[in-house]
Design a protein that fits this description.
Organism: Nesidiocoris tenuis
EC number: 4.6.1.1
Radius of gyration: 19 Å
Family: Belongs to the adenylyl cyclase class-4/guanylyl cyclase family.
CATH architecture of the largest domain: 2-Layer Sandwich
Membrane topology: Multi-pass membrane protein
Order of helices and strands: HHEEHEEEHEHEE
Structural class: alpha+beta
Number of domains: 2
Catalytic activity: ATP = 3',5'-cyclic AMP + diphosphate
Length: about 200
Amino acid sequence: MYDESFMYGKECLRFLNELVRNACAVSDFDDLLDREQFSMVEKIKTIGATFMAASGLDPASRLKDSHEHLFQLMEFAFALQGAIENFNAHMLSFRFILRIGYNFGDVTAGVIGTNKLHYDIWGDAVNIASRMDTTGVANQIQVPVNCVPILGQRYNLERRGTVFVKGKDNMDVYLVKDRIPKKDEKIDAIPPDDRQAT
C-alpha cells in the first residue's frame, strides 16, 4: 500500500503523473475520457491524490435520456478501477488503492480567475461526493442512499450502513458491487432437455 507521506509526497506526484499521462493500453485515466462510451464524462481537476470527474454538465446530453450520463459516470468509475489494477500489476514495491465517492445532483459550474483561468464545479452534490470518497472503503465505490433508486436499475448495491459525514451528520451509504446482467445475457443457462416442468 502506498502512503502519500512517502518521500514527502514526491513519489505520489511522480506515479500520479505516470498514471494520468502514461499511454499504456487501457490504463491511463485521461485516455479513458477519449472513448466514445464516456462522451458525457468530463475531467474537472486533480487535487493532490484526488481525480475529480463529472457528467451531464452539458444540458443537451440530458435531453435524450436524463439518466444515461449517470450510468456513464459509473462505468467510468469501473474503468478507473480496472486502470489501477493494470497499473498495480506492474508495481513491485507497493500498490495504489483507489477509493471512489459518487453522487449526483445540481451543481454550479464556471470559470474562475483572471490571469490563470480555472474551470470548476461547486454545490452540495459535489461536497457529498467528496465525503463519499473520504469516508469510503478501499477499492470500492461508495454512494449515498439517494443514488440507489437510479443506480439500482443497472447495478447491484450493498448497504454498508451509516457513516458520519461532515456537515450532514449520519448518512446511509451503499457500495456498488457489480453490474446487473442484461435480460439477454444468460448465465449458466439450463439446457432445454434438462428443464423440469413446474
